[in-house]
Amino acid sequence: MKTKDQMLIKELEGDTLTPILIFQRLSGKKKFLLESSLKHERSGRFSIIGADPTFELIGEGNSSFVISGNEKEMIHEKPLEVLKKLLPEDHLHALEQFPFCGGAVGFIGYDVIRQYENIGEPPKDELKIPDVHLMFFEEAVVYDHLEQKVYLVAIPLKRKRMELEKRLEKRSAEIFNDFTNSNSGKAALSAFQASMSKENFIKKVKKAKEHILEGDIFQVVLSQRLQATLEGDPFEFYRKLRVKNPSPYMYYLDFEDYKIAGASPESLIKVNSNKVAINPIAGTRHRGKTETEDSDLEKDLLQDEKELAEHRMLLDLGRNDIGRVCEFGSIQIEKKMQIEKYKHVMHLVSEVSGKLKKPYSAIDALIACLPAGTVSGAPKIRAMEIINELEDVKRGVYSGAIGYFSANGNMDFALAIRTMLVKDQKAYIQAGAGIVHDSIPEKEYEETIHKLKSFLEEQDDITY
User: Fold this and answer.
1) Under 8 Å between Cβ of 376 and 382
2) pLDDT digit string (tens) for 263-291?
3) Quick check: is 382 catalytic?
4) Active-site annotation holder among 418, 428, 445, 448
5) Which of 65, 86, 236, 451 lies most in the core, judged by the most C-beta atoms within 10 Å?
6) Would you kindly state where each structural domain of the chain is located, as residue ranges?
7) Is 133 in the active site?
8) Does domain 2-274+356-463 match CATH 3.60.120.10?
9) Which of 269, 252, 281, 280 shows the shortest CA–CA distance to 410?
């Protein structure tokens, strides 16, 4: 077993293994799997798997709970402020080749913004899940797709070094054991039922347009939630999703009481070696059935003034967000309104970066960007107030952030869209549409349904 300062590393041959197989073989009730469809690029080279967290941080409003085994400590402080104390103050030394070497994995919900901005009383909370849920792992499995190698990595946060060495040996034995900790089988979804009627959604779009015409806002993103019954293992749904909907961010989080499965095209924020990066996505077309049709749709998107204006607005918003925590003069637009194509849709994508300013941390950068302009609108605070007025249910995970804080100071969070939450055999998905002054209400409703259908792929999965 190799060491690099505090970090423990055990290298395994990975030619007979897959991230799915490793996930199924690891023991532990609470687990995660982070993947990417970009396996042959730096950003998607690694899959990360973990099980059996050392402790957890749960945030509900301005209260936080740290759970370790059967112990539960309540702290009357904002969860992201508690998080700053739980992560190592001095970044632990780790090999730069690994994106994650131990740390916190989970989600930061949309409604965390209520702890920093007064946007009104929250609407009905149907799902009853935390605003923040992060699991802290001292060890993880890193699958290198380029080298076809598997690395067991660990950094001591609470456990002693000798105990971690034993845990890595145990993990190694599990990975090469034929037994899998999986319900394996099928996952069957009933037809999804929309949370509101088409007429009601259109009514809300018209109300949003009134705010725009009155000069309150330029844009607001209105969403709706759908619900279905899921029978079987939610992980089987994720396995189908990753094949049918390959995306830069693919994830499965098992919190025991509920599960999250998603395939998001968009990074909310990433921090690597003090470089902050965001990539706003705004502007969408479905993929063509032929190369010619695909090319025509791409040209149409690049010439659509409504889509271009919306993208420029969100690009400026993103630049302002990271400008709050980055050094003056360091903000750069590295990619501007380029087409990126996925299996079902194509998007206009940009990338903005800057250098993190002292004394700010990756957590501060995340707070500065929450929520993304692509799921709220502009100006952001007024848009969120209008969302609070018009949407009937608390958003929860949807339009928040899913990813990790690594013990070496790095961070990578996807925007939580195209994401399913499963709790008590009920599956929930949500999608939104950006409303501007010339929006056609019926088309905005259809956009939310189209986004959900592209996520589910099966055209008959939605009843409305």
Assistant:
1) no
2) 999 999 999 989 999 999 988 888 999 99
3) no
4) 418
5) 451
6) 2-274+356-463
7) no
8) yes
9) 269
